[in-house]
Amino acid sequence: MGARETEAAQRSIAENRRARYDYFIEERVEAGLVLVGTEIRSLRAGRVQISEAFARIERGECWLLGMHIAPYSFGNRWNHQPDRPRKLLLHRHEIAEMLRFARQGGRTLVPLRLYLKDGRAKVEIGLARGKHTYDKREAIADRDRRRDLDRSMAARSRGL
Q1: Could you tell me if residue 34 is inside a domain?
Q2: Is the dihedral of CA 10, 33, 13, 127 positive or negative?
Q3: Cα separation of 13 and 134, whole Å?
Q4: Is the dihedral of CA 48, 118, 35, 127 positive or negative?
Q5: Model confidence at 88: pLDDT above 90
């Protein structure tokens, strides 16, 4: 499958950009998402927020907590609860690996991206380690250095 076909098959809905700032992402895992009723319609409309969400493993199942999917505007009394826990679909060995990872100190499971793949809702879970304040300052300084370098290269190419 070509790059263009892959992009068409995966439509990004929400991205957790804050996670890359707050955590070192060590590994990524794709998981399916169990949705009910009007949730998928609201999700397709882009009315979802994953910035406060996190994953937790309980009794051998992986759950996504803190994700907010706004009620569907054309829904009626059967509309969904916006902040309910949602089950993640993973293989047993993937859940065991994630549990081993999460039990280590300072490690957590954060959603990085929510997207549709071939019409199904998927979430990319990052196995992450928390950053300290000095790590965040380093990231900001690196970003500023790169930006200044790009500006100077652009000015040089324009002949200024």
Answers
A1: yes
A2: negative
A3: 32
A4: negative
A5: yes
